[in-house]
Design a protein that fits this description.
15 strands; eleven-stranded mixed beta sheet; Amidase signature (AS) enzymes; alpha/beta; homodimer
Chain lengths: 471, 471
């Protein structure tokens, strides 16, 4: 495996080393940009303009944004520039150009969650996570497209359009946070907020070749996040590196500086050594050959870095059952959350979306009560299986990006729902490109955010910028 | 109000001062008994025999017990006697004769929760609360009758018989923990465990003239307690004084000595002075005149003791809505909990019980999802209303005990479900007898267990022993 690892790595390094954004402001990402601000090489106003200009130029064909907040972004960037000029930034996020998923309230902006019934709803206030980012000086560029109601993994939204995959037009960016992941991958924001109920941050991160992190349940508040399932919803982050994810996550944690400082630093490789990590046995899982190969490479890199690995058998049925319960609970809670609008304007919800929610009406209250209990019991069992390990490594999605026109036979969320059911943090990270140049992805599921982010940093094979977005 | 208070108090003191059990072992209650053990005036064997003898003699007509554990109780009492003889009791509960509600698992004993389908189910282990009591040296006398499945407030059980009210034969002891409250009132145990989902400890405590405490949610584990609603179920305690309740509660808390010590001591009157207490405005509530009058007397005593009082208006609709949600959630969770037995042997559940559970099947999963959310929102609102106060004083039940043969037009749990929805501790305590000699009851709902127990101790008007059980 070590030999294979070196072969893979050298091939990949050779192939992608130069694949970066030509504009250093864009290339810098989140952490790099604050360094440029500190060095007075770039101002937040320049960065904001660079991103707004790219959005105008590139987004019409991509479809990552549903709303751009150009004026308020410019105003925020000006205030940030004044602070940096005085050497008094509010935080390492001051002046960071951030995109926000359309189900998270941004005061004064549309807050529709990709649902036509709410197209004209304007958020009266910021969600707490957004308010914290503003307090940290972040510049909110706009709101990103998503799968209708967050209930799906394709982001082919019948009301707000498709988000194309930056790596291949007419291919899905994944979902439900498809717009956020695509915007990060295409360099249309430095980093982005998403939400993850059954995998909605990690799936599009996988398909778009970026990092996506679903935090520990309860770490980030979900107030003013239009609910899909309030018992499983998490706010998550998308970035072009594990460090960018950690930095944005720390900003979302707000006024808990100690916690924020800890999360802003993914666990170092040194601190990961000594623990034992589980590698999911993929035997019996229905997984695309390219993803499987990338996962073997990932395990090889982990071994090559001196991490202690053990194969763990968790039956596909465990993942399937967690997913069945998560989907049913989401159906019931989505139906409850949107009951008024569903009753008043059923025609403003797509048939596909209503079809997903229908189990919430069709099944009984007792069935839901049982589902909550079964989920809790299953989670307790799985936690026990995971207890000997510091983390579990597994693929993020069973396949890379797929065309909009093809019904994909594999379930994008087959391997992501587990972390939502467990309430544990999980990070998706790139593991190279397939033979036909689509990003592949690995996932680290750990007991704490620093460990999963640390594994992502240590084990990723970043894939650089998609060809059409480099310039 | 002060004048009235003195008139009431002197009348009541005159009337009931001598109404005690003639046997000092029985009269001692829980705390008194351990003093008798320490003084070597009585041994645990004598106490156990005294209680077992009363059970044989008096319970056939009362119906408080469904199963007596005479042999294991005697064996436990012998071991306890040896410890006391050596001056090495395990705890202040060592040798305490305790009764346990039939939905709480006692190893080797029937564990049927008043449901015919489980008549022959024998508990394979102790519920944690029972195990902790045994570790403290308690003597488990037996299991008490209850409303079928804990889903009701009458304890007229179609499979296991009626529990009569010790104050009046053919009157209900209340429920669902009717057997436990009746056993405490009739001197057939020193104290008892019950369970409280919508009021099941406090309602029968009210009707039987004893103290009943529902602890803070989560304080006591509910494992191996046959679920009615696992999101609202609490294990609670019945005793003949607030101190007895506190002592039994502390024993149930087990190996957390600091917490146990704090709970074993209800807040003193001195420590209660200085805080402000809310007195529920009963305007608009449908409450029996005798209970209303007793509540006025209770408020008068509180003022007379120098407590700062303020009238609080919480609309009857708030209580009704909390109750509607609690009943529906209980229906769904009860249906889920008993699904297998319901499917296999529907004839072993009464029509009345199935009628209560039917909403769990009839209503949708989405309706239940909405109910959980509405309950959480309502609880948050009420907590805000209660925030300025150290506790809320209110009646326990809208009426005293009622005959089995009469459908009571008032809802016994109308005023108790609030505490379950809030997850806050509440203590029911006697407030005298009605003109026709039925116990009346007040309720203290507080932010911590010590305060509600302290108020119960300070404000109760104990009613002594029912006439037919004094000898």
């Amino acid at each position: 495996m070590t030999l294979r690892y070196w072969r893979d790595l050298s091939a990949i390094l050779h192939q992608y080393a130069q694949m970066t954004f030509s504009n250093p402001i864009i290339e810098a990402g989140l952490a790099g940009l604050s360094q440029l601000y500190a060095d007075r090489a770039v101002t937040p106003v320049e960065a904001c303009e660079a991103y707004l200009s790219r959005i105008s130029r590139l987004d019409p064909a991509l479809g990552a944004y549903v709303h751009v907040e150009a004026d308020t972004a410019r105003a925020a960037a000006h205030r940030s520039a004044e602070r940096w000029a005085k050497g008094e930034p509010l935080s390492p996020l001051d002046g960071a150009p951030i995109a926000v998923k359309a189900n998270i309230a941004v005061e004064g902006a549309p807050w529709h969650a990709g649902i036509e019934a709410y197209r004209h709803r304007i958020a009266e206030g910021d969600a707490t996570v957004v308010a914290r980012l503003r307090e940290a000086g972040a510049v909110i560029l706009g709101l990103t497209n998503m799968h209708e109601g967050a209930f799906g993994a394709v982001t082919d939204n019948p009301w707000f359009g498709r988000t194309h995959n930056p790596w291949r037009h007419d291919y899905s960016a994944g979902g439900s946070s498809g717009g956020s992941a695509a915007a990060v991958a295409a360099g249309l924001c430095a980093a982005a907020l998403g939400s993850d109920t059954l995998g909605s941050v990690r799936i599009p991160s996988s398909l778009c070749g970026v990092f996506g992190h679903k935090p520990t349940q309860g770490l980030l508040p979900t107030d003013a996040v239009a609910p899909m399932s309030w018992t499983l919803d998490h706010v998550g982050v998308h970035g072009r590196s594990a460090d960018d994810c950690a930095r944005l996550l720390a900003g979302c944690c707000g006024a808990e500086p100690e916690l924020a400082a800890e999360i802003a630093e993914p666990a170092s490789l040194d601190s990961l050594r000594g623990a034992t990590f589980a590698v999911l046995d993929l035997d019996g899982f229905d997984i695309d050959a390219a993803e499987k190969e990338a996962f073997v490479g990932l395990a090889g890199r982990a071994a090559g870095l001196g991490l202690e690995l053990e194969t763990l058998t968790l039956m596909p049925a465990v993942f399937a059952e967690m997913r069945r319960l998560g989907v049913f609970i989401s159906a019931a809670e989505s139906t409850a959350a949107h009951a008024e609008a569903l009753a008043a304007t059923p025609e403003l919800f797509s048939e596909a979306y209503k079809g997903r929610m229908i189990e919430g009406e069709r099944q009984s209250a007792a069935a839901l009560a049982r589902a909550y209990r079964e989920l809790a019991e299953l989670a307790a069992d799985v936690r026990e299986r995971l207890a000997p390990f510091a983390a579990l490594l597994l693929p993020t999605t069973p396949m890379p990006a797929f065309p909009f026109t093809e019904a994909h036979k594999l379930t994008p969320g087959a391997l992501t729902t587990l972390a939502n059911g467990l309430g544990l943090p999980a990070t998706a990270f790139p593991t190279g490109l397939s033979d036909d140049d689509l990003p592949l992805s690995g996932q680290a599921l750990a007991w704490d955010d620093e460990t999963s982010l640390g594994l992502a940093r240590a084990l990723a094979l970043p894939v650089g910028a998609p060809l059409s977005f480099r310039g």
